[in-house]
From TrEMBL:
Gene3D superfamilies noted in UniProt: Leucine Dehydrogenase, chain A, domain 1 (3.40.50.10860), NAD(P)-binding Rossmann-like Domain (3.40.50.720)
Enzyme class, UniProt record, top EC level: oxidoreductase
Domain SDH C-terminal: 238-268
Gene: aroE
Protein family: Belongs to the shikimate dehydrogenase family.
Annotated organism of origin: Photobacterium sanguinicancri
Binding-site positions, NADP(+): 77, 126-130, 150-155, 214, 238
NCBIfam families: aroE, PRK00258.1-2
Subunit and interaction comment: Homodimer.
Binding residue positions for shikimate: 14-16, 61, 86, 102, 216, 245
Keywords: Amino-acid biosynthesis, Aromatic amino acid biosynthesis, NADP, Oxidoreductase
Name of the protein in its database record: Shikimate dehydrogenase (NADP(+))
Pathway: Metabolic intermediate biosynthesis; chorismate biosynthesis; chorismate from D-erythrose 4-phosphate and phosphoenolpyruvate: step 4/7
Reactions accelerated catalytically: shikimate + NADP(+) = 3-dehydroshikimate + NADPH + H(+)
Amino acid sequence: MDQYVVFGNPITQSKSPFIHTLFARQTAQDMVYHAEQPDRDGFTVAADRFFAQGGRGCNITAPFKEEAFQYAQQLTERARLAGAVNTLKKLDDGVILGDNTDGEGLVQDLLQHQVPLKGKRILLVGAGGAARGVILPLLAQQPAEVVVANRTEAKAQQLAALFSSYGTIASQAIDELDGLTFDIIINSTSAGLSGQLPSLPHSLISSQVTCYDMVYSTQTTTFNQWAKDLGAHRTLDGLGMLVGQAAESFMLWRGLRPSAKQVQRELRLQLQ
Ligand code: ATR
């Protein structure tokens, strides 16, 4: 039976074994997927052991995504630009391929929720690893513009420069966003994890705008609650992105696209 694993520390909270087990059942794949928690300095040893024992592929979550990027012997373009790897696959010739499916997971979730991206103006709030991981797939959808805004402005400028040859992308100081309009606002900051909000002007929120928080929780996230209270057209959280990135990894490993919708429904029920 083909072996897959997710590496993270901590890992007990991971939904990946649940998601991939459902995907495997759905598509009748002979595979098992489990979770493993290497020590903080133990990723390489754990990955070496896993592949030496015949493992076919793995997911990587915090804090090992940059190490997995170094570990990969070959990278997809989206992983190279993300600077981080969330999926490894042992190719038929033994080479370990590194990919990053987070951004495509976000894009697929937006599209599945009938949020078109082509020709739209997208505000990406935050300029950390989570933001960097989604920019290339967003630009590939040919939005009118992606604008990156971050508390530390220099980091937003650096990201916009890094991706400038891949589409229309700019950075904007957070305190100069007042009066600008966007169709979609994506929160990639970790502010909500401590109950905080990035300090965005209220004028960004209208009955036309869709807000997407890349994190998810049992309740409405802090950012989405803020957007709802101000009358946003729609708010979505990152549960769909989680399932979407898993579906992309599964696709890379097995060559089959599982249905994300059903799994998302089951996961949402499990959260309640
Ligand atoms: P991740 O990999 O989750 O993106 P990260 O690389 O540490 O984590 O980036 C965290 C992001 O959240 C950054 O954009 C950070 O802003 P700074 O670059 O200014 O630090 C943003 N962030 C975290 N807490 C925030 C807060 N309270 N308000 C606004 N932005 C915040």
